[in-house]
Design brief:
mainly beta; Yippee/Mis18/Cereblon; metal ion binding; zinc; metal-binding
Length: 137
């Protein structure tokens, strides 16, 4: 399992259930709170299932449900198949989509802001954020 440095300069998302490290905030492309999603360039400790039912099409792309590698909770979905060049319009953004891009649900994530753990969706502190090693399940 990949873990990010727990320092004030490093901000990242964690799985809300097991606190596995999921993505650096620097990989965040945009947040769409109306859609309830974060679009990220990449994520770690996330996998897609082998079940064909986990895969579907979105326009010309193939997407798959994305799960936390440690606890298996569904966190969102990942682009698993993308034609050579695909541009997706979301709100006022045009985004070039690549295999490995992920869309994660903030309600399934926590956020390390450099000093404490917050709920990603509300940015309210998590009561037990003072745990010394919050990446252990």
């Amino acid at each position: 399992m990949i873990e990010f440095a727990q320092t004030p300069d490093v901000h990242f998302f964690l799985c809300r259930q097991c606190r596995a490290h999921i993505a650096l905030t620097q990989d965040l492309v945009f947040m769409d709170m109306r859609m309830g999603a974060y679009f990220l360039r990449s994520a770690v400790n996330v996998h897609v299932g082998d079940d064909p039912m986990d895969y579907r099409t979105l326009g010309d792309c193939t997407i798959a449900d994305a799960y936390c590698h440690r606890c298996k909770m569904q966190l969102g979905w990942m682009f698993a198949g993308v034609p050579e060049f695909v541009q997706v319009g979301v709100l006022d953004f045009n985004i070039i989509v690549r295999v490995g891009n992920v869309l994660l649900y903030p309600c399934k994530l926590l956020y390390w802001d450099g000093s404490q753990i917050l709920y990603a969706y509300t940015h309210q502190p998590v009561e037990d954020s003072s745990r010394e090693s919050f990446s252990d399940g």
